[in-house]
């Protein structure tokens, strides 16, 4: 049995006093309640540093863990029972973990009480969805109107080789020397490395206001606990709003080696940048990794070229094994973004100008029927094909690490994907390379495919 502790703590940060209705919903264990969601996310946060990416295994390991919200006259308290002992030092919860726990609670309460059930947010429209993402970020305090552009979104795999991890730290270090901030999915691997490097560089530059933003969603955070360096954590309600938050908030994007989740993010980003309305949009995008990752990016580039056409190459730059050049190019690109937004009188803190089609905003539930029905063929506009490929990869991510996806695969077998023959062949090659390179699961875990191509 794992070592556990029980404790009662006060939330930290911007959490306000909760109503009795909100407290009751957080305690509600029925399907309509939020207790199970809070419990799964809280356990992941309290397991920070635990090397697993399987939320189901984590829940089974700590099957007797629970969390309760206690309402008092002076505010609320959180009672955790049988929590992982590593979340405490001498019986006291580590402050960073306590902050993350408070952020999770804040966003769950806000989203489910103020966004999803409020008449002013019409989540069936593009405008309503973008407005909802803005309000969630504002509630979390991540929008800083007074700061010049400087947020670099870093994407990449949680399961990467040590050499690739060290490279992400080097890139983060050189970004930090140029006083740029880091925004990631907040998990391990390529999400942790850039923050670690930037943290050291910010200290050397005496840059005391460095930002390490982590943007996650319940299914991912339950599998990948936020790394300790994250000092601003936001939990979005689903993967689509999470991805929109990244590109509305960020001023440039760096993609490190990864697996199917990284491919999902790439297709989301490029599908949006290829939309005709975004033809003049300034958004520096760099794919980078050590020399050993050159073949990885070659495969990605070839797949993108075949599926999305030659024009896709104008939307990104590949820089291999040169952290300093990556940082210089990103600094220059963000300076261009600054000039572009000034010229168009656009906000620095939120990219309202970017057009995001509904295909990229609608929540995709990766059921077996939905996965089998995806239109994976080239007889459609490139941004629509990108959206459908993104959904296919999103479903594979769910089958790999999310509790609901894992349970669906256990009950009904692998997802089936149907595509035109040549696209199927190229998709099979790409996914097969991820498996062969160990990019689907953390090291030491045997990967059993959650999909089949038919």
Automatic annotation (TrEMBL):
Coiled coil: none annotated. SUPFAM superfamilies: MCP/YpsA-like. GO terms for molecular function: AMP nucleosidase activity. Its EC number is 3.2.2.4. It comes from the Bacteria. It catalyses: AMP + H2O = D-ribose 5-phosphate + adenine. Residues 334-454 form the Pyrimidine/purine nucleotide 5'-monophosphate nucleosidase C-terminal domain. InterPro entries: LOG_fam, LOG_family_nucleotidases, PpnN, PpnN-like_sf, PpnN_C, PpnN_N. GO terms for cellular component: cytosol. Residues 8-114 form the Pyrimidine/purine nucleotide 5'-monophosphate nucleosidase N-terminal domain. It is an enzyme of class 3 (hydrolase). Pfam families: DUF4478 (PF14793), Lysine_decarbox (PF03641), PpnN_C (PF11892). NCBIfam families: Nsidase_PpnN. This is AMP nucleosidase. It comes from Billgrantia endophytica.
């Amino acid at each position: 049995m794992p070592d556990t502790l029980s404790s009662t703590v006060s939330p930290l940060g911007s959490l306000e006093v909760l109503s009795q209705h909100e407290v009751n919903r957080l305690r509600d264990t029925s399907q309509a309640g939020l207790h199970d969601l809070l419990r799964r996310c809280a356990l992941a946060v309290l397991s920070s540093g635990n090397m697993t990416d399987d939320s189901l295994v984590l829940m089974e390991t700590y099957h007797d863990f629970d969390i309760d919200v206690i309402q008092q006259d002076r505010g609320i308290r959180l009672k955790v029972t049988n929590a992982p002992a590593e979340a405490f030092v001498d019986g006291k919860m580590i402050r960073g973990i306590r902050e993350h726990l408070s952020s999770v609670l804040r966003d769950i309460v806000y989203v489910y009480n103020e966004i999803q059930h409020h008449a002013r947010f019409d989540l069936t429209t593009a405008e309503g969805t973008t407005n909802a993402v803005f309000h969630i970020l504002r509630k979390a305090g991540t929008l800083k109107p007074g700061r010049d552009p400087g947020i670099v979104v870093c994407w990449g795999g949680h399961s990467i080789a040590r050499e690739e991890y060290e490279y992400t730290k080097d890139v983060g270090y050189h970004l930090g020397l140029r006083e740029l901030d880091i925004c990631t999915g907040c998990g391990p691997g390529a999400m942790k490395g850039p923050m670690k490097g930037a943290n050291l560089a910010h200290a050397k530059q005496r840059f005391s206001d460095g930002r390490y933003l982590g943007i996650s969603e319940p299914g991912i955070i339950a599998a990948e606990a936020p790394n300790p360096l994250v000092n601003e954590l936001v939990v979005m309600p689903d993967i689509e709003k999470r991805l929109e938050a990244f590109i509305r908030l960020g001023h440039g994007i760096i993609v490190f080696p990864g697996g199917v989740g990284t491919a999902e993010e790439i297709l989301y980003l490029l599908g949006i940048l290829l939309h005709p309305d975004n033809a003049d949009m300034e958004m520096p995008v760099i794919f980078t990794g050590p020399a050993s990752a050159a073949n990885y990016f070659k495969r990605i580039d070839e797949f993108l070229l075949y599926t999305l056409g030659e024009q896709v190459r104008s939307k990104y730059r590949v820089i291999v094994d040169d952290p300093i050049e990556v940082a210089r190019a990103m600094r220059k690109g963000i300076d261009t973004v600054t000039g572009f937004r000034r010229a168009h009188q656009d906000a620095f803190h939120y990219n309202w100008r970017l057009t995001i089609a509904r295909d990229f905003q609608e929540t995709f539930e990766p059921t077996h029927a939905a996965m089998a029905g995806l239109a994976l063929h080239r007889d459609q506009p490139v941004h629509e094909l990108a959206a459908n490929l993104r959904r296919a990869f999103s479903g594979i991510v769910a089958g790999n690490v999310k509790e609901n996806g894992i349970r669906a695969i256990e009950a009904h077998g692998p997802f089936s994907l149907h595509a035109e023959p040549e696209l199927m062949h190229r998709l099979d090659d790409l996914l097969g390379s991820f498996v062969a390179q160990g990019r689907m699961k953390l090291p030491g875990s045997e990967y059993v495919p959650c999909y089949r191509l038919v």
